[in-house]
Amino acid sequence: MKFVTPTEVQAKAIPLALRGHNVVAQSKTGTGKTLAFTAPIIDKIDPSIRAVQAVVLVPTRELCLQDAETMRALGRPFKINVLEIYGGVEYGKQKDGLSYGEIGIVVATPGRLIDLVQQNYLDFSTVRTIVLDEADRMLDMGFFPDIEFLFSKMPRDHVQILLFSATIFQEILESIHAITHGKHTIVRIGKNEDEFVVDEIEQVKYVVLDRNHKYNMLKKIMHEEKPQHCLIFTNTISGVEFLEKRLHEDFRFPILAMTGNVSQKRRERIINDFKAHKIHHLIATDVASRGLDIPNITHVIVYDVPQYAENYIHRVGRTGRLSQDDGTIRRGKAIMICAQNELMSVARIEELIRKEIKTIRAPGVSADGSAAGNAAQQGWRTATRVPHSIGDADAEGDEDDEYSGYNYQPRNPFRY
Ligand SMILES: Nc1ncnc2c1ncn2[C@@H]1O[C@H](COP(=O)(O)OP(=O)(O)OP(=O)(O)O)[C@@H](O)[C@H]1O
Ligand SMILES: [Mg+2]
Questions:
Q1: Domain boundary at 130, 158, 190, which?
Q2: Are residues 277 and 256 in the same domain?
Q3: Among 190, 215, 237, which residue terminates a domain?
Q4: Fewer CB within 10 Å of terminal CB in the chain, N or C?
């Protein structure tokens, strides 16, 4: 793959995995975690055994396709075949793939995999490695029952477990314990273990009075920044659709919009067009927040403050990624637009990333986040202090939290 130097997570996790450890690895977004679990898997697979020997579980279909692509590239010289298993498409190819017995690695979203296991297309007797990519997401309440079910079908004494994510927090350690039985080695990368956002990402937040002021702020940002390749996140499907319509009316450039409501065929096309830089603006829900490796995103705009603080880290992590050309991390900018009643959620994000994001207040918003009557408060200025107790965390409804066909259970947003 023309990589010259391993990244830190690769240098630390690969040898441990080769020695047979269960590895739990946390390393920032865009630092090459995919290769860190792919390399040991490829090394361990015996191509002469015609059976599935590794299973990689991922939260979204697009990540399934992307991880499979990396694994296929690495497995090809060793004649190791890779099969994607995910929902929203026909069963034919997936069932055929499993029936021929030529597949060494399966990359899957849990729902469809369980479906095929229950139909006896796959058993795990030959599986030696299991990976949870985006491990904290795979072990949260939405997915945990599926993961538990799949693990109950595995030959637990022989299977090696590799867990990777940019965000592995204390609260998930119990679930990790449950699946590794406490036998795992933790690898955390970074000079400070509580640093989560890649240094090369410049972060700023704009505070506006209320939701109704957000769109005008976005328009102003688009005019000022003129982003070259831009990903915009909202919390809901209706938010994506609203922005698609308004931005198209106001700017007339082609815009992609991706939610869990879009057909799978179209979802794949959208990601391909955006990855290939054919279209430069993508609006999406959190279906696109984790794992996707899209070259040269210059701007991530967080239009709605995410309900779960860690999603901020994943959203902004779509920029500032390792460049395939020279191995350095590309600079990027992350801009969040916050209404005053979202400032509680913002405070939780800042607590989590242990950093106050630079603030730019819209005219009329005072330093404590309230509407300012004072004329001296008008105008643009920057500040860093954020109030921690204004407003209410604005839950916009869970309509979009069903990506990959799963019911996403509401979690406690106050757990940090
Ligand atoms: N050793 C390396 N040298 C240079 N580039 C690399 C190296 N390893 C991986 N890359 C490239 O870095 C980019 C980011 O890798 P990857 O998607 O695996 O990151 P990640 O850590 O999984 O991020 P995320 O947390 O967002 O999922 C990819 O384009 C990958 O090809
Ligand atoms: Mg990844």
A1: 190
A2: yes
A3: 190
A4: N
Evaluate: CB of 318 within 6 angstroms of ligand 1. Answer: no
Closest CA to 118 of 91, 83, 137: 91
Per DSSP, the chain holds a count of helices (H) and strands (E) of 13, 15
Ligand nearest to the CA of 133: 2
Contact 33 CB / ligand 1 (< 6 Å): yes
Which residue's C-alpha comes closest to atom 31 of ligand 1? 324
Examine the domain organization and report whether 278 and 219 are in the same domain: yes
Model pTM score: 0.89
Q: Which domain holds residue 145?
A: 8-190
Q: Six-digit token pair at 355?
A: 């950093």
* C-beta 323 within 6 A of ligand 1: no
Q: Are residues 27 and 153 in the same domain?
A: yes
116 is a domain residue: yes
The response to whether residue 320 sits with its C-beta less than 6 Å from ligand 1 reads no
Query: Which of 54-68, 267-281, 363-377 has the least mean pLDDT?
Result: 363-377
Closest CA to 169 of 121, 202, 137, 215: 137
What ligand 1 atom has the least distance to the C-alpha of 134?
Answer: 27
Å from CA of 39 to ligand 1 middle: 13
Smallest CA separation from ligand 1 atom 27, residue: 291
- The alpha helices in 252-333, defined as continuous H runs, are 264-275, 309-316
Q: Is 8 helix (H, G, I), strand (E, B) or coil?
A: helix
- Residue-wise pLDDT for 79-128, tens only, equals 999 999 999 999 999 999 999 989 999 999 999 999 999 999 998 999 99
> What's the pLDDT score for residue 193?
62
Give the tokens for residue 239. Answer: 């938010």
Q: What percent of the chain has pLDDT over 90?
A: 79
Residues whose beta carbons lie less than 5 angstroms from ion ligand 2: 33, 291
